Fold each of these.
Amino acid sequence: MGVNFREELDKAVATTYWEGEGEYNTKKEICNARFDLCPAVLAYCESATEVSDCIKIATKYGVDIRVRSGGHQHEGMCSANGVLVIDLSSMNQILDINEEKQEATIQAGKKLIEVYNELGDAGYVIPAGGCESVRPGGLVQGGGWGPWSRKLGLTCDNLISATLVDAQGDIKTISATEHKDLFWAIRGGGGGNFGVITEYVFTITKLPEHVMPFFSIYFGKDDLEKVLRGYIALMPELENELTTFCRVSIVDEDRPDRSTIMIGGQYFGTEEQAQKSVEKLRALGTPLSHNIEMVAPGEAHLLANGKVPLSVSGRSRSVITPQTFLFQLGNKEAPSSTCNGNPYPHKVSSTFPNPEPKHVYNDMLGVIIDQFQDKEEASTANLYLSIHSMGGAIADKHSDDTAFYFRDRHFILQYQAWWSDKDDPNGKDYVDWVIERRKELADYTSGSFINFVDREIPLSEYYGGNLTRLGRTRYDSHSAKVFDFEMSIPPIPPFDD
Ligand SMILES: Cc1cc2nc3c(=O)[nH]c(=O)nc-3n(C[C@H](O)[C@H](O)[C@H](O)COP(=O)(O)OP(=O)(O)OC[C@H]3O[C@@H](n4cnc5c(N)ncnc54)[C@H](O)[C@@H]3O)c2cc1C
């Protein structure tokens, strides 16, 4: 790597952390504590020019690059041993909210919680993820599923343009009219493949006038089959204002405050409208408890900020996001929160149920019920399946309108295992549990969501019919020469006619 590389990089970028020095050990941490990776240097860039210089200097000295905004890539591929990590977390401002054009310019390293808060203060929202510490940098490029997706689409569907630093270090604006292929590719093609994005311009949507309810309904194990089958049948029929997830967990119900199945979500509308739909979900079983929370105009962001007290079963707890408080119902040895920014070891894997033939859901649900009914709780982990609702505005686009392919699916299935100690001797069992449970659904499912990435799944599963165009875009943009990691998209040269 050499003295010259260091000298040039330190001259170009104000804040760097070199292996073994200063705060390096803290700065190198990523969200998944299963991976303890040691890059040679982390460059905390504060401008597109600094990013550009990093790319040029790394290329000159033959140093591999990884890109990181929030560090949430589930397989740790935003980092690696011996590389230069270009970190965008210092580029964390909303640069502009233009009410006339209904647009906001947001830097790649802005935490979602801050995006929600600041846009919420101005009376606007973008549909993004359900976890506060995730950053748009990676989220958008994988598509981005979140609380308002059925109403407003995936995060990437709300993108107007982006500023991208390419493999040569050139800074360019990409949009539907400029560098169209790149703009198409970054909307679902997965982060780290096409360049370094420093900022995004999004369409913003006015928050509903009166309320933005968040709700959660908890059911016990006797209701598992009834509620699960009811949820899968009902959800696609409900209005787009409602985006939900259903979590099925392995929990020990002999201990109080455990719930085998819960449905949570957010309604983009008034309390009255929300109550009607939530009542349909409540009626799927006999709830152990439920909650529907209303907030005043412009305060919806408080739900995501832990400031609104939520009463569940007569107890008060604070809300952060759906995923966050879900953990409080699980194994007390495991992390109490997915979303508080602390790194925890975990494994996820995802797939989409096939939309046809009709009996697919019935047969698939039989397998899922067997996976969870009366199973023994893990001693140190939370093991569960999240079923995220799709449809609505997500399905308004075609599978090749953006690089996110699976527009016709009604749900994303995500198996998850979270535990607290990276040296936990059961860690491998938890990883295997996730992998095996997804494989058991192979007859009924296809594809996988790149944001819920699992290295065991071949790349073709993530991109379906869009893989070839993504490969061509990688080739044409020369990005593969510089942005190359274990699961990057292989470049495809043009056909020889
Ligand atoms: C706790 C948790 C909750 C999550 N919740 C959701 C959710 O609700 N919805 C959802 O869709 N996903 C969710 N995810 C998945 C998450 O969206 C993806 O992991 C996403 O890629 C994270 O982006 P990041 O910038 O935070 O992470 P990073 O690890 O920094 O980035 C992820 C990928 O994108 C690349 N990348 C990052 N920044 C840039 C950039 N500026 N330019 C180019 N490439 C870049 C990285 O190299 C890496 O390959 C969650 C993940 C976790 C760990």
Amino acid sequence: MQGLRRFRRWCGARRRGQFALTVGMVTMLTGTCGAVLVAPNWAMPKIRADQLASAQQVAADDPRLAAVRGIMEPFGPLTAVRVATGDGQESLVVGHSGQRVEMDVLAGELAPATASVNELWGTGWAQSALVVVASNASEFAALLRSGSLLSREVAAASVADPFTHGTQPTGQRVVFSPDAGRRLSPDGLRTVLRHELTHIATRGDTVDGAPQWMLEGFAEYAAHRAQNHHFADIAPTLSTRLRTGAAPTDLPADSAFTGPDAAAAYEAAWSACAFVAETYDEPRLVELYRGLAASKQVAATEDALLREVLGSSRADFTTAWRTWLETKTP
Ligand SMILES: [Zn+2]
């Protein structure tokens, strides 16, 4: 399983009220990883008509259904929505009738999400996705090929067949948890979808063992870009630490993304990528991603790539990022 994401409540989103931020990771996680992010029940804001899919078709004969039909049909009849997502490609949202509301939200978000990923990453990927909404914990685990039930804090995750770096992976799908529609607002669903879609788009260029701060930071950056989300709303934990003089001293290590302080790790990773995009530009952020994602995490490699792409040593990059963070302190 790859690209696993968890619920997290957003606090302080003054204009949008309660909201949720999810974080994720590319490595396999078990159900024991839910210590970080706890989202209490809250009312899902009313969904606007323009957030629903406009052109829906039942695509019962779509061959992509074959990949999930055997897993899902024991849990009830399938509903599928086909969405045009660019360059003649079609994405598919699959679920059961009980998940129809969130399915429609996701279907309505798929085309703009794909366009946003294309704008950042380019069009050298499938530009389509199979998005599945699980109806219960067993189905969620089965769709993610997990041998055990996942933490209820997992909002969504993505999987792919084994693949060779540099080739387009097959069997990719994004799977939303049975609680996603209840616990995430439409804004939250959009953010999760864009995060996971970024993992789908970039997976062929990403090796196991690449630095998590870039993999997850980039997906989070892609999820929030051009949405007018405020720094403190995207990174509440980091904001609090900046206010109290507890700014991160270094880029988060891979181990930080699975421990009790994972939320801070994701926020720091997002901020490092936002720093690159804002201080340099998005093409150089993408270039940095391509370089770092193609290699195992080795400090010397990171240093060489940062020098090559940004003209800055790793130490100088970290210092500049921390200085930038201070400018974001409320
Ligand atoms: Zn992720």
Amino acid sequence: MKVFALIRLICTIGLITIGLISGHSLAQDLRRPVSQERDFSIAPFSVDITIPIGHRCMGVLPTKSKEIVDPLEAHGFVLSGGDKPIVFLALDWCEVRNGAYDQWRDALAAAAKTDRVHVLVCSLHQHDAPVTDADAQRILDDAGLPKELFHPDFQAECIARAVAAIQTSLQDPRPITHLGTGQARVEKIASNRRVVRENGAVSFSRGSRSGADPFHSSAPDGEIDPYVKTLSFWNGDKPVVALNAYATHPMSYYGQGQVSADFVGLARRIRQQQLPDVRQIYASGCSGDVTAGKYNDGSQQNRIDLTNRLALGMAEAWKITKRIPLTQIVFRSTKMQLPYSHHPDLTEEALTAAIHNESARTEDRILAAMGLASRRRVEAGQPIDVPCIDFGKAQLVLLPGEAFVGYQLMAQLIRPDSFVVTVGYGECWPGYIPTKAAFADKFEDKWLWVAPGSEARMREALTTVLKWKSE
Ligand SMILES: [Zn+2]
């Protein structure tokens, strides 16, 4: 009977391991009937994060905010029942970087009684919306440019609002028993920046509003992920929260100081009106190289068209959503170091000179301060967290910066059997994160602070957090 004893021992160790990972004791697991083996809950929260008039947009746009066309919002939730509470928050902002990213996560972690690693913050990346970077702004303060990148007091107010909203929501969390998964093809929004000219030359010249140009509107979509994915949380047959993710830059037009959540925020509001009892959250997938450029000429009508197409895709994904029992919330995270760019303009000396060049444009000095803040963060050895929430049949993973869509496709390929929702624009200091192929195609941009070699680190991180099997 030694064999049976050994099998029993192995099974017991297995159960203890699962119990430890999911934060539940073995005794608790054995006591409960299988149908209600876990108490999972979700506490959704939302806050207004609209910038004041006179605030910089996109970090470096010359025209500051002049008019609020529609508000900027933040939507998120606290998930409980795993090892520790997990916070997810999606901001209608362009980017949150460096010290500002830490400030958001630390405050939300304290509010939800968890730690920084369990806090997933992402931006939707609208362009008439702020970039915040506490370290860059401090450098600018010292150079006589206070509040030029962003207003720290305003961000502190937004964080305080989110903290209060979390605390209120946690007083009445909603039990969740099921997970919903649905995806649908979105028509005529996403297209890749990369185009091939008649002479075979490759360029990344298709911008977010290139649709008026016949070459750019007729070139193929290129590499995209055509699906909007909706991951939802249910209490029995009652849906509570729907998180929608789609990989595209979210701009229809921008740059005139007209603050807006743009077509992605407008589509989210349409879905919220259609389903008032289900909190709608939208997050941008990995879309550094994806915009609406093929289909968008930058007109006001185009903003409406893009809104309706995205809302339609979200509605389709909802219609075919499959509901499955929620049996686990397992959290994994790994630390990733991306190599800083080797560009000669991005050395400590060159950046410092650019910041203090009083005859230069303010926008260029801001960009240099952002580059220096990121450089110092990398030199100090502060890694990027790559977190993944594993629900068994579905995973939610957050990647940094403007990761190219190839990384989102890579994530799905790592778990082809599973419903993988990849969100981009987490910690945003890297700017664009091109794939190896895009570096080989000589992708270059001022909004690029990482070096070739990034793909290997991204692949390793994704494999670490996705490939681990819990069952
Ligand atoms: Zn961008």
Amino acid sequence: MSARKNSTGARAAANLIHGYGNLAALEEAPPLVIAAGKGVRVFDEDGKGYIEGIAGMWCASFGFSEEAIVEAAIGQLRRMPYYHTLFDKTTTQAGELAEKLKAIAPAPMSHVYFTNSGSEANDTIVKLVRYYNNAIGRPKKKKFIARRFGFHGLTLASGSLTGVPIMHTDFDLPLPGFLHVGFPHYWREAAPGESEEAFSQRLADQLDRLIQVEGPDTVAAFIAEPVMGAAGVVVPPRGYFEKIQAVLRKHDVLMIADEVICGFGRTGNMFGSDTYGIAPDLMTMAKGLASAYQPIAGVMISEKIYRAMVEQSRRIGMFAQAFTTSAHPVAVAVASKVVDLMHERDMLGHVRRVSQRFLERLHGFAGHPMVGTTRGVGLIGAIELAADKTTKERFAPIVKETLRRVCQERGLIIRATGATDAMCFSPPLIISEAEVDEMFDIFAGALDEVARRVARDGLGAAA
Ligand SMILES: Cc1ncc(COP(=O)(O)O)c(C=O)c1O
């Protein structure tokens, strides 16, 4: 116990606030200390290896030891470790990276604004949309609509876009002017006998009604993740984005694609918007943009929004939105290398090949007695637990948490989500077929072990 008390993990818990942790529980059971990484694996301080089935936070797409990216960072640190892109200054590769991003964007984009995190990027989007509507003389058109259980970050504005109740509790969120519509989780939310298309239409109609009730002249934008990550890898039901975008066009409401998880190959195309036919006016990128080797995120906006911003800043005298370390040169060098490697190594081709094995193994769990449903696209997927497949009754929360821990004991890190009982997989994109098999073999053993415990200890359905 005393060794544990003096451990690196205990020191961390004693001095550092750990996001998403139960702070009280962490004082009793210190966090796992991750000390090294190689390929798709990370190693704890005792040298035990784990397949990182969720790529850290759905982000380390090139794994944990890509030398080409490390070299890009070191080279830039030596040449110019810091400069900014504010006032009348810029840095060597920032404009070039923006150009590369525009070239791969899922819809015509005009300009890029870099931030340090996905939350900051979505926060910035809220400000840009306000600025835009003020610029074009629509000062009332300011409300944002997001989805229940959508995740867009945790700053005040991005946390208000987020639709996860526990992330609002006691933070006094959402702020006024942020509204949430239906959760497009077909398996859980569709009415009995409702087809996917009909479910999508119902959600689009609900959005339409909300905009009409609020007043179309007050609703500025709608934001969505192409595939909802933190909600439990919720892939859109058939026809969903087509129907939603028709409603947005009807009411002149901007479409924001939050590509923080889906961007840079995760769904088998460069962006989730490519996979699902989304034509965003604005989009958010983070995570895979730099394989998370550096904190960098960004926003891409269309020409109509950029032109209005130019005119407005001419009138006001300044575009007064800036971060000291946005487009940080080391982060930019890393992101630029990542984008190059995506092309040079044909990462999309690799993802499409390996995802066949990934999805085959993932869906192979659908018949397991503990599993309600499975879903996935590209290299992102979820296995959703259910105490009863037919009634869709949920397990007590302890079950998914136990499964997550047993996976970890057996050398696999995955994520268990709160909105659904989904065990989420989003491994580094570089994963091989053999590693996919190893990952799901570990999961299969863990699932069977937890099934035995559920039967033995009576850990059952949620009360
Ligand atoms: C879809 C989505 N948007 C935004 C964010 C926020 O990004 P960050 O954690 O970098 O602030 C996340 C983080 O998980 C995310 O999944």
